[in-house]
Amino acid sequence: xxxxxxxxxxxxxxxxxxxxxxxxRDEAPVQYCAPTGQxxxxxxxxxxxxxxxxxxxxxxxxxxxxxxxxxxxxxxAHEPFHTLNDHGLLDLEGPDHTRxxxxxxxxxxxxxxxxxxxxxxxxxxxxxxxxxxDGGGDLIARVAEPLPVxxxxxxxxxxxxxxxQLRPWSADITGMFELNPSEETARRAVTASxxxxxxxxxxxxxxxxxxxxxxxxxxxxxxxxxxxxxxxETVSTCVLLLNAGHEATVNTTGNGWLALLRNPGELARxxxxxxxxxxxxxxxxxxxxxxxxxxxxxxxxxxxxxGTHIPRGAEVALLFGSANRDPARFADPxxxxxxxxxxxxxxxxxxIHFCLGxxxxxxxxxxSYGALLRRAPGLRLVREPEWRPGYVIRGLEELMVEI
Length: 403
Known about the structure:
This protein has 403 residues and is an alpha+beta fold. The chain has a single domain (2-402), classed as CATH 1.10.630.10. Helix content is 52%, strand content 9%. The protein is built from 19 helices and ten strands. The strands form three sheets. The protein has a five-stranded mixed beta sheet, sandwiched between helices. Strands 4-10-9 form a three-stranded antiparallel beta sheet. A two-stranded antiparallel ribbon has the order 6-7. Strand 6 (303-305) and strand 7 form a beta hairpin. It starts with 10 loop residues before the first helix and ends with a strand.
């Protein structure tokens, strides 16, 4: 069975899940996976359609109780994590999602984001210059992580002296998005949820008393103007923006540079014409080694996918990494082609939960790749990296390079 090869807890699978995806697409494009308790959906057309299908949802509690839906209620000990997570845009549905997204989206319009380009370019250049001065180092710790954290923290108005806490909190919270997280993972997520929430509530209190030009001040003002944003929704929205605003960008940078260094012909092609090729290169790197490999949805009403009946109450696992390598949609999908123009990858999702920060992510990636390509033309890999154990949010432990 193709699902035998789908082993998200195996380091070998995490390092290269693409052969298993090919088997799933060819032999069982919709397949129940007993170890994860999910229906795996692996073809681009099906994943794309289900992302837009309102018979599926990120949550079921807007329509059913846990008992009605046939699912156990969350462990009460994990309540701080679920309270934080369930009030964020990613897991909201219906009017609540629309209301909050409308308020937050003003900060992420293409025009608003483009105004950030000079600041992002300066920050990326400074980080790359620091790497150059040392003759190399861990590209993830030195460039990939600090850039998006600094940008989203600046947008929200997080003081620079507090930003060192953001990445550890984020890592502990997002551990719960992995498959079958351990009780230790849950404990760390609960602790981080409590600490992060308490920090943001105090920051909100200060912004309410002394507003600034940052996004937290804008959200507080919106709530006070009667646009019905509760304090919990404000806290959850800020956490989601901080987490989603850097986790995927960090991994796209690391995974992308590993792909470039493993494909020297394409890297030389990009270096020879950075300005012309960089926009399509960024899209191709997001497609080629997707940072978010799986996106889960609950089945709210019975559906049929590729001739397979999936009942209400089931969970589907939309395999973004597989969809982005589907030969039915992408010519020669296992080849890195930095000039690929027909590239409807699903890295940012689709439908009402399409990534709100997509314009910002593209800007950050363009500037960080551009700075490294222009300022470090001799960049090379020191040693083969190891992958972090997580599968859903897939990235490298480190990427050691020399100049």
